[in-house]
Design brief:
CATH architecture of the largest domain: Up-down Bundle
Number of helices: 15
Radius of gyration: 22 Å
CATH topology of the largest domain: Growth Hormone, Chain: A
CATH class of the largest domain: Mainly Alpha
Helix content: over 70%
Largest sheet: none
Structural class: mainly alpha
Number of strands: 0
Length: 458
């Protein structure tokens, strides 16, 4: 036993070196990192304009609409992207989607520079985010073509995780660029142009790979592909059958329900926090001052997300994953209910840190439960369903908040309702998972490591 750990560490570093030694992997990896850094810059540029515009104070409805534009494309387009990704050259998808996003961001920057905030802007942003979903899905589908099969798990662990870190880094770099360029709509427009430059660079790197390197393989001679409409219908039927199978697996359906419930509440509190910082805490200050204050909440949330990745594996060695989900949801309700009514900036920094931990901890456990409890034949479809239940309820929460919260975001009833929502979700999940709280039975099927790593990156 004592020699096992050094051997495992040596194997880990050896596999990592092998992955990074692959020339084609490095190029695909660079394409991902540059593009996802651009995603962070893009989000910063758009968010500063929509929520922290010096000329306007965002109303709840506009805030909910902006969050819908940012989050819905990933869920509504994602399940259908594979139909096209398995037909077209993935290298070409990476190249042309990068160029198209750069062009769309030039248009978006022009709209922002002219002070637009409405349907034209949202259509432009929706198009850019929809194209981005094809880009990200193509990266995952292409990965097995650039690494050896026995290092695929390592490649899946390195690429998505580092890509997420690049998005965070790009977001903070975008905020810094916004401040350096004077803020306001001019600063937001410049930030979006910088994101477009990242996409152009990403496409340039993708163009260095052979057109046929990343697949898909051509159909066998004489074989005919099904019509696109037929394949899209198959996707819909697959989602339905995956939902039915997940419903029959009580641990999976309970975890999906807990995820959807807590994401509704997270959406409520996200919009409320944005409005508080823009229209309450800094009602008589500059937009840049309110953005600086809100950035602290974002940093705290990022720390919470990171802490979940460290804490959750340790805690779930001591308690079951369902028990940890119930504990996290309960903690979210208590922190929100105790700190929220103070309506102070310090309180919302604490809430941001805590709910970042709660959200990511629940996500890690739910992902693992799906991997362990679903047969491989259904696992992909259930993860597509999970992706939808992660983002659509978040937007629904923002819409609910928009219908209730005042323009300055200060609503004691809504804060208490959100706290009660966390506690109610914890109670309902605990009742649904009561047989698993003390310990989990062996899974009916082993999880596929490569699929598991891919799913956790979605």
């Amino acid at each position: 036993m004592t020699g096992g750990r050094p051997a495992a560490i040596a194997t880990f570093w050896n596999d990592l070196r092998r992955v990074l030694a692959e020339r084609d992997f490095r190029r695909l990896f660079a394409t991902r990192l540059i593009s996802q850094a651009g995603d962070g810059v893009f989000t910063a540029g758009l968010g500063t304009y929509v929520f922290f515009n010096a000329k306007t104070f965002p109303n709840p409805g506009a805030g909910a609409a902006a969050l819908a534009v940012l989050y819905l494309p990933y869920s509504l387009i994602g399940p259908f992207a594979g139909v096209f990704i398995d037909r077209w050259s993935r290298r070409q998808i990476l190249l042309w989607s990068a160029l198209l996003r750069a062009a769309l961001l030039v248009l978006t920057a022009a709209l922002i520079g002219s002070g637009q905030l409405g349907i034209p802007l949202y259509v432009s942003v929706l198009a850019a985010l929809g194209v981005n979903r094809f880009f990200l899905a193509s990266l995952s589908a292409a990965l097995p073509h650039v690494v050896a099969e026995d290092t695929l798990v390592m490649a899946n662990a390195v690429a998505p995780t580092t890509g997420t870190l690049a998005t965070f880094a790009g977001g903070f770099a975008g905020l810094a660029l916004h401040f350096l360029t004077g803020g306001g709509r001019g600063g937001s427009a410049v930030t979006l142009l910088a994101a477009g430059a990242c996409y152009l660079l990403s496409g340039t790197v993708a163009a260095t790979m052979r057109r046929d390197l990343l697949g898909p393989p051509p159909p066998p001679p004489g074989a005919r592909r099904a019509r696109i409409v037929t394949e899209l219908a198959i996707v819909v039927k697959g989602l339905v059958s995956g939902a039915r199978e997940a419903w029959r697996r009580r641990p999976v359906s309970a975890a999906l329900g807990a995820t959807a419930g807590q994401r509704v509440i997270y959406g409520i509190l996200s919009l409320t926090t944005i409005l508080l910082y823009r229209n309450y805490f800094y009602a008589h200050a500059s937009a840049n001052a309110s953005l600086a204050g809100f950035t602290i909440v974002l940093v705290a949330s990022a720390f919470g997300y990171g802490a979940a990745a460290v804490v959750t594996p340790m805690v779930t060695r001591l308690v079951s994953k369902p028990a940890w989900i119930a504990i996290l949801l309960t903690a979210g309700g208590l922190v929100t209910g105790l700190a929220g009514p103070a309506f102070s900036q310090a309180a919302f920094v604490v809430i941001g840190l805590s709910l970042g931990l709660v959200a990511q901890g629940v996500a890690i456990c739910t992902t693992t439960i799906i991997q362990q409890r679903m047969d491989d034949g259904y696992r992909g479809r259930v993860f597509a369903l999970y992706d939808m239940l992660f983002n659509v309820p978040f937007v629904l929460g923002a819409v609910i908040a928009a219908l209730v919260v005042p323009a300055n975001g200060k609503s004691l009833r809504l804060i208490l309702a959100a706290a009660a929502g966390y506690l109610a979700t914890a109670l309902l999940y605990g009742l649904a998972s009561r047989h698993d709280l003390g310990g989990e039975p062996p899974s009916p099927s082993s999880a596929s490591p490569s699929r598991a790593a891919q799913a956790s990156s979605s």
